[in-house]
Design brief:
heterotrimer, A mainly alpha (295), B mainly alpha (381), C alpha/beta (244), B: 381 residues, mainly alpha, ABC transporter involved in vitamin B12 uptake, BtuC, two-stranded antiparallel ribbon, two-stranded antiparallel sheet, 17 helices, globular, C: 244 residues, alpha/beta, Rossmann fold, 10 helices, 38% helix, disordered C terminus
């Protein structure tokens, strides 16, 4: 039982991070209809920025805020430079472009930081632990959960009740009609990228804070997982993205924990096989909300 | 009587596509020595990989990111088949007896690996090819992840993440040249066949193709299988060039490299594989000289790690935004010149030489006229 | 109020609209009719800024709106109710109306206008929280018009409001159009339903293959034999229309 609880808590911790990334992903996807492989790289940028700032002696809280801002700026730049011109291009062009941006960012980080793994030094307060239900939980885990909850609520409220949030839903719903209302599509898309980047940045910082080391290929994999998580829950649905993130984490953790000895190490293969199955059988997501259609 | 274009002229085609590259090849090989020979061998292997990817991604319109997975299968299966029993027993603990005992000569091993890979791909394709666009791309990427995971863990077959080494260097320059030419020839014949035309029709408009009675599911599947066959061939050749393979070599990085070759050269044609492979094989070599630091205009530029990747990815992005059809677009000039019998039979016809001289003189005259005009108008050449 | 001169619009190398000129006076209902592909919708989309104007000019109340962006055009007072309604199906009725007020800075105006929309279309108030996608065709059309009205337009571009609607609903829609005119709205009406369009409008332009083939008071146009043959199916005169 204790093992189960430990696994569950593990899954929740990981799931929170996936959920944050998936939400940002889902918002951008529902508006642009375009897969963004580079989304995962934003996590990496946030992490590297934080490391850089901390190494330069910047106080922790300030460094976190700055890292998030830097990531948001990168997000905006990516959209402006690479994605704006291909907005109406064919699917393969979009896939290729976002892959190219992803490769570029990874290469950039490799050039600046060298490819070895780095350790993130975070204030001790975060690594303090205490026991919950007989399982060791550290402060950073609680912070992760709290941040995820807070940000999710904030984003949902924003999308549901603010003028810009509703405009975002309008653009996602029917681009032409939104145009006719005078909604500025460019600004809306930029806003979506900012939100997505901020969420990704927070997720990246939380992830590396917990696992205290990071390397530059973590970004791409996380981007792929974010896409799958968002699809699991149904693209365009925020609550679905959150659910998708937790489900993916549950799959990962329980496969590695409970598969019989000998095939336990195939955890990655199993997880992805299940995910591929879902993508094939229910491309509209497990909860059946309609996939975004291009108007 | 209208004289045909220069690019249709058999002599011109022969010179540009057969003679010139052959000469270049000989020069590079003799001047470069054995290190450069490896680069050349890699070039031909890359041509095979890029051309096979173009078949699905550009020509049939199936956007697959899974090529590296099939390359891996080809590499591993062929290696397991060519390695001696003794080597396998020492390297891989617990390899099944029957598997360890098999040892095949190179060509049968490669073909076996390619056929097995193709069949596996067929099964996978049956399941996944119903998906399209983004979903298919991610699913094929997922395949790469799954296969890497399997290769990493099936240590009694593959030696896990440590990989296999000690393969004989079967991939010599003559071998890969023949393999590349064969690959291009086969793919070319497919492309100009009715089957090939229906692939293109499928890419253009699925509904229209379906209404013409073309079963798009079987075409997609067959195209996918052919493509993976050659991906495996490429992988097998590669394994016997590098002589060491590991699962990590067939992951995202390799996926990007093959994709870059495909896109930069021109995704929609087989000929695109050649400039694509050339850029991706030779440019990194040139860049490698610079990544340890260099001076330009008196400014010292320090060592940049991964300069190759940065330059390649920028090149990639610029190409997609400004010239997404790549170097050759969908023109099959190179491949069709290589394999069209008329290129060779035309060398024996007088008319070929007449047309060639005429077109050349015409070009000379128009250039001269242009230059004259410029000097007269004071613009200067 | 609106003066369009030598307007040309092209879509992907097809000249959809060739060098047309027309005018709409304040308070008028002008109809633009023609068969499919004649260029009516392209004209509208050029007026609302959705497609680029290749050449020509659009002057609205003395303001040059040629080549302006949709948001500038909406701010100037021209609002386009597109073909096929195009409501935001996943947003509620209320939110759809809110989107109409997106550019309006005075929120009191938005509330007042929304209130009048509800008076005009009481059914919308009943369905205020329902997702727009679940409304019937006629209700969606009313929502689309209502949404446009919240913007506070001075010129309303109605693109095929009767498309796909049952005759009873079409009647209701045209009643609304008449009432809008009574309250001072200027309207450009594009319709395939030539009969109803000419019955309700003061002047009519007929478009054919991108150019204006005929123009004049609706009554005269409707009596024209050629027009009757091509667009009205022959024998029927407009006096016997369903709308009287």
């Amino acid at each position: 039982m204790e093992f189960f609880t430990a696994q569950l808590i593990s899954a929740v911790k990981l799931g929170s991070i996936y959920a944050l990334v998936a939400i940002g992903y889902s918002i951008v996807y529902s508006i642009m209809g375009m897969i963004n492989f580079a989304h995962g790289e934003l996590l990496m940028i946030a992490t590297f920025s934080l490391w850089l700032l901390l190494s330069a002696g910047v106080p922790f809280a300030v460094a976190v805020v700055l890292a998030v801002i830097i990531t948001a700026v990168f997000g905006i730049l990516i959209e402006r430079i690479a994605y704006r011109s291909i907005r109406n291009a064919g699917e393969s062009t979009q896939i290729i472009t976002s892959l190219a941006v992803s490769i570029f960012l990874e290469a950039l980080c490799q050039a600046i930081f060298n490819s070895s793994s780095k350790a993130l030094i975070i204030p001790d307060v975060f690594s303090q632990t205490f026991k919950v239900l007989g399982v060791t939980v550290s402060v950073i885990d609680v912070v992760t959960l709290a941040c995820t909850a807070a940000l999710t609520v904030a984003v949902v409220l924003f999308i549901r009740h603010t003028r810009v949030g509703k405009a975002m839903r309008a653009v996602a719903d029917n681009q032409e009609a939104a145009n006719l209302m005078g909604i500025n599509k460019d600004r809306i898309i930029t806003t979506a990228f900012v939100i997505g980047s901020v969420l990704a940045a927070v997720a990246g910082i939380l992830y590396s804070g917990k696992y205290t080391s990071f390397s530059n290929d973590m970004g791409f994999m996380l981007g792929v997982k974010a896409f799958i998580a968002a699809v699991l829950g149904g693209l365009g649905s925020l609550t679905g993205a959150v659910a998708g993130g937790y489900i993916m984490a549950l799959l990962e953790v329980f496969f590695s924990g409970y598969l019989p000895q000998g095939i336990g190490s195939y955890q990655t293969a199993f997880t992805f096989l299940v995910l591929i199955l879902v993508l094939l059988i229910r491309p509209n997501g497990l909860f059946g909300s309609s996939a975004r259609e291009r108007s | 009587m209208e004289r045909p274009k220069l690019t249709d002229n058999p002599l011109f085609r022969f010179l540009t596509v057969v003679l010139l590259p052959a000469v270049l090849l000989i020069i590079l090989r003799t001047a470069g020595g054995s290190y450069y020979e490896s680069v050349l061998i890699l070039f031909f292997i890359n041509v095979i990989l890029a051309a096979s990817l173009n078949l699905t991604n550009g020509i049939t319109g199936i956007f697959s990111l899974g090529h590296a997975a099939f390359m891996a299968l080809g590499a591993y299966i062929s290696s397991i088949l060519t390695l001696s029993e003794k080597m396998k027993q020492t390297m891989v603990s617990n390899m099944p007896e029957w598997l360890a005992k098999i040892q095949l000569p190179f060509v049968p091993a490669v073909l076996t690996a390619a056929v097995i890979t193709m069949l596996i791909a067929g099964l996978i394709g049956l399941a996944i090819l119903r998906a399209k666009g983004h979903y298919l791309a991610v699913i094929t990427l997922g395949m790469v992840i799954v296969i890497k995971s399997v290769l990493d863990n099936a240590s009694n077959l593959t030696n896990g993440s440590r990989g296999l080494s000690g393969m004989a260097k079967y991939s010599t320059l003559p071998v890969v040249i023949i393999a590349a030419l064969l690959t291009l020839y086969i793919l070319y014949r497919i492309r100009i066949s009715a089957f090939g035309r229906s692939m293109v029709a499928l890419r253009e408009d699925e509904d229209a193709a379906a209404s013409l009675g073309i079963s798009y599911r079987s075409i997609r599947l067959l195209s996918f299988m052919v493509s993976t066959f050659f991906a495996a061939v490429g992988g097998a050749l590669w394994a016997h060039l590098q002589r060491t393979i590991a699962p990590s070599l067939f992951y995202f990085n390799e996926t990007f490299v093959i994709l870059e070759m495909s896109v930069l050269g021109g995704m929609a044609s087989l000929s695109g594989a050649i400039p694509g492979a050339a850029i991706l094989t030779f440019l990194p070599q040139i860049l490698a000289n610079f990544s340890t630091g260099f001076t330009i205009f008196g400014v010292q530029i320090p060592q940049i790690n991964g300069l190759t990747n940065i330059v390649m990815s920028i090149l990639f992005i610029v190409t997609i935004i400004f010239r997404k059809q790549g170097v050759v677009g969908n023109s099959e000039y190179i491949v069709s010149s290589l394999f069209d019998p008329k290129t060779y039979t035309g060398l024996f016809k007088k008319k070929t030489y007449e047309d060639f001289a005429f077109a050349f003189r015409r070009k000379q005259r128009s250039t001269a006229r242009r230059l004259n005009k410029q000097t007269m108008e004071g613009e200067g050449p | 109020m609106l003066k369009v001169s030598n307007l040309s619009v092209s879509y992907k190398k097809i000249n959809a609209v060739r060098n047309i000129s027309f005018e709409i006076g304040k308070g008028e209902i002008v109809s633009l009719i023609g068969s499919n592909g004649a260029g009516k919708t392209s004209t509208m989309r050029a007026l609302s800024g959705l497609v680029r104007v290749k050449s020509g000019s659009v002057i609205f109340d003395g303001q040059d709106l040629t080549g302006a962006s949709p948001s500038q055009i909406v701010s100037a007072g021209i609002v386009h109710v597109p073909e096929g309604r195009q409501v935001f199906s996943k947003l509620s009725v209320g939110e759809n109306l809110e989107m109409g007020g997106y550019l309006v800075t005075d929120k009191k105006k938005v509330r007042d206008r929304t209130a009048s929309v509800f008076e005009l279309f009481p059914i919308l108030r009943e369905r205020i929280h329902q997702k727009a996608g679940s409304l019937s065709g006629g209700e969606q059309q009313m929502l689309a018009i209502g949404r446009a009205l919240v913007t506070g337009p001075r010129l309303l571009l109605l693109d095929e409001p009767s498309l796909g609607l049952a005759p009873i609903i079409v009647e209701r829609v045209f009643d609304v159009i008449r009432e809008l005119q009574k309250n001072g709205m200027t309207i450009l009406l594009v319709e395939q339903n030539a009969l109803d369009a000419m019955a309700i409008s003061g002047r009519t332009y007929i478009m054919e293959s991108g150019s204006i083939a005929m123009e004049g008071p609706s009554g005269e146009i409707a009596e024209n034999d050629e027009v009757r043959r091509i667009y009205l199916g022959g024998k029927e005169t407009w006096n016997s229309s369903l709308l009287n």
